[in-house]
Amino acid sequence: ESGVNDPMAVFLTIALIELVMEPRRALSFGLVGDLLSQFGIGAATGVALGWLLGVVLRRVALGEGLYALVLCSGGVAIFAGTNWLGGSGFLAVYLTGLTIGNLRQHAGDGALRVLDGLAWLSQSGMFLLLGLLVTPRELGDILWPALALAVFLMLIARPLAVWVCLLPFRFPHREQLFVGWVGLRGAV
Questions:
Q1: Are the C-beta atoms of 80 and 42 separated by less than 8 Å?
Q2: What is the pLDDT of residues 68-116, one digit of tens each?
Q3: What is residue 144's predicted lDDT score, i.e. its pLDDT?
Q4: Is the pTM of this model over 0.85?
Q5: Distance of CA 186 to CAs 58, 151, 179, Å?
Q6: How crowded is the C-beta side of 29, counted as CA atoms within 13 Å?
Q7: Backbone phi, psi, residue 110, to 5°
Q8: Non-local CB neighbours of 93 within 8 Å, separated by 6+ positions
Q9: If I label 85, which of 30, 43, 48, 129 is the partner at 20 to 30 A Cα–Cα?
Q10: Phi-psi region of 86 (alpha: psi -120 to 50; beta: other; left: phi over 0)
């Protein structure tokens, strides 16, 4: 789910910033061209370079711990190269992972454990850095509007959106309330 959502979310965020900064350019067909270019280049490089990296991993005998390093460095290189070419690096890395994951590899559970640990470390670092962006003295100015927005999103907007999405499936009202409150992942 995240692999499909994140590239589009990044593209839409950048497009909305462009719309605010340069309304004439953003409303032109250049936006559609950028979307096709980013997703086309991202998909092509992700699958092609993922297949190539998978072939390399199959033919090279490495120590167990080195497979994770090759996968990480390959992912970073594919992300950077795809961005340099004007494509979506997020989509490319996602498709690279899918492609490599579907090829038979020497890399085993050890590499997966290392990559899982690196993912947790990256998430922790991201939230730490996001926390450093907060200036405590400015929180008082936005406290009440932020709380009002959070209450609106939790108690009105989300349940309403869930109800509209589940309407065609004829879920019982209690189940719709449950999914609206805990989210789809929480309900699953």
A1: no
A2: 888 889 999 999 999 999 998 989 999 998 898 888 666 667 777 888 8
A3: 92
A4: no
A5: 38, 19, 8
A6: 0
A7: -60, -45
A8: 46, 75, 78, 79, 82
A9: 129
A10: left
- For residue 60, give Cα distances in angstroms to 32, 51, 54, 98, 139: 41, 14, 10, 20, 53
Mean pLDDT of all residues in the chain?
A: 83
Q: Which residue type sits at 15?
A: A
**Nearest CA among 164, 167, 162 for reference residue 178:** 162
Alpha-helical regions (H) of the chain? 2-21, 23-26, 30-59, 64-85, 89-101, 109-132, 136-152, 158-166, 173-187
Cβ–Cβ < 8 Å for 46, 101 = no
For tokens 């609206």, the residue is 180
